[in-house]
Amino acid sequence: MSMDKQQANSIEMVRAEKMVKHFGHLTVLNGVDLSVKRGQVVVIIGPSGSGKTTLLRCINHLEKIDSGHIYIEGEMIGYREVNGRLVEDSEATIARIRSQIGFVFQRFNLFPHMTALENVIESPIHVLHQPRNEVTERAMSLLEKVGLAEKAHVYPHRLSGGQQQRVAIARALAMNPKLMLFDEATSALDPELVGEVLKVMDQLAKEGMTMIVVTHEMGFAREVADEVIFMDKAAIVEEGTPEQIFDNPQNERTRAFLRMIL
Question: What is the bridge-based pairing of β-strands 79-82 and 85-88?
Fold first, then answer.
């Protein structure tokens, strides 16, 4: 890691403390703590149903936690303290913080009636109220960045899954986020299209974007992650560098999971 990245890394982008989340009688997050430094790439692995996606959705308050705290650059998201107790924050404040967090979903969620370019410019124009000509220029350079400049005026149904997902990444980047969350961004893709999306994610990591990535792509986790977290049964079981987790896991549950998939 370069010296610059180390210095940037001393600043916490995300801090979550004792996150608890229930869906009815089911506990999906059970006292989870998380710290992600600026410029860090944290990859979360684990079996289905272990709480990985819910953790991401709680970070940008798409899901409300039942207890605990989540801070983005030191600012609590979702709640504020009034006379020593937590009350839910205003929609406007939540929306402001959420607009700084890019989220790329498993399903691409593009607007089908809009071209690739229109999908990318929609939020900066309507949410951030930025001038259309500036936004369009930036959107074109983002489509170029993800290798799709020539598809700017094409509708989603004419794009492959990998192309749609790359448009979705460009759309998230158009909001100029401080933090990018990826929820199994390649798992809905045909195997031969996975690489083109991972390449874009790898490039973002190299540029210093702070990223939290839930994925089944262990090669990506090993190559790109600064830290790997293994989750199982609503908790973080083990965390460490890719070398520690993949080559020398300490916990039997981690070892069993890796034996199954590697």
Answer: antiparallel
